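Protocol step 4 of 6: structure prediction from sequence.
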Amino acid sequence: MDYQAGFFYLFSAVLLFAAFRVVTARNPVHAVLYLMLAFSQAAAVWLLLKAEFLGITLVLVYLGAVMVLFLFVVMMLDINVDELRVGFWKHFPLAAVLGALVSAELIAVLWVGFPKLGVETAAAVAGADHSNTRELGKLLYGQYSYAVEVAAVILLLAMVAAIGLTLRERKESKAIDPAIQVRVKAADRLTVVALAPTPKAAAVEQPKEEGKTS
């Protein structure tokens, strides 16, 4: 067994352990942290398989953005774990059957669906100067450029909608609208109020007794 196979088994073992702890962890924050560990190990496996673009994308998109967002949301919501675990064992048999079915399908696809090509054979077919990132870029921005543009527009609309739904004006904000300042008039700022005259109070003078002794 060479060093590449050793790293593959190491990353795979850590990935399986982290995925198992995501499901069994009682604390949601710990579950998110284990999920981040699982994604990092999956990115390392992608790099071993010479899929550099997928590995870097997994780190930048999921670890750098999505998982951090999930972590902050879970920490701010303060989820009550006891309420979430109500009825867990009631639905466990159905979940176990579905999980076993999905696992069997994945094993069947991986075992039968892909040809057994070694690293040397794949390198000989692709060539020494082959780049997965370059070929993927040619497909995305060449053959599937229209689909990429449609997906970009949809993501932009989703981002604008999320900002519009969550944006709220702060009541304690002291921001000034320039349009209101331009339209202002003197009569709106200054009001002259006529007051009735009041009688002048009589001044009471108290004699000063300086130098007098009682």
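Step 5 (inspection) to follow. Confidence is low (pLDDT under 50) at residues 117-121.
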